[in-house]
Write a structure and sequence with these properties.
With about 140 residues, the protein is mainly alpha-helical. It has a single domain, classed as Multidrug-efflux Transporter Regulator, Chain: A, Domain 2 (Orthogonal Bundle), CATH 1.10.1660. The protein has 5 helices and 2 strands. It has a two-stranded antiparallel sheet with strand order 1-2. Strand 1 and strand 2 form a beta hairpin. Helix 4 runs antiparallel to helix 5. The longest helix has about 40 residues, at about 90-130. It is elongated and about 70 Å long.
């Protein structure tokens, strides 16, 4: 068991964070070395990373940005703006607004593709007298 000096209350190891968020420890280290985190995780006296709830919330945001296709360089830019603090809100808004616009365009495209697939399914189902498809 580690001492409370090495394990502050409400902090998690890199392995605990990885498991909790469904990431690898390699991915967490990558986020850190690429400058995608707002701040470096705290360290124990032995140099081991410790993550708090704010760190976890930020990592989840990074996961969401990546999952929606934001390039690493843009996430880094956004993280740099957040680190810079007050006075960067307009730039942060611009980064997120531009990304949202791209995501909405992708969503529209996928929705159109889904409509075409659904029309094909309906056509085959009608031709075969198959029961109505689930939605």
């Amino acid at each position: 068991m580690t001492s409370t000096e090495e394990r502050p209350a409400a902090s998690l190891t890199i392995a605990e964070v990885a498991q909790r968020l469904g990431l690898s420890t390699h991915a967490l280290r990558y986020y850190e070395t690429e400058g995608l985190l707002v701040g470096a995780p705290s360290r124990t006296t032995t140099g081991r990373r410790r993550y708090g709830e704010d760190d976890l919330r930020w990592i989840v945001m990074v996961q969401r940005l990546r999952a929606t296709g934001m390039p690493v360089r843009e996430i880094r830019e956004y993280a740099e703006l957040v680190r810079a603090g007050a006075g960067t809100e307009r730039q942060r808004l611009a980064v997120l607004t531009a990304h949202r616009k791209r995501v909405l365009a992708q969503l529209d495209e996928v929705t159109a593709h889904l409509g075409a697939i659904t029309a094909k399914i309906d056509g085959y189902a009608a031709q075969l007298g198959a029961p109505e498809r689930p939605r």
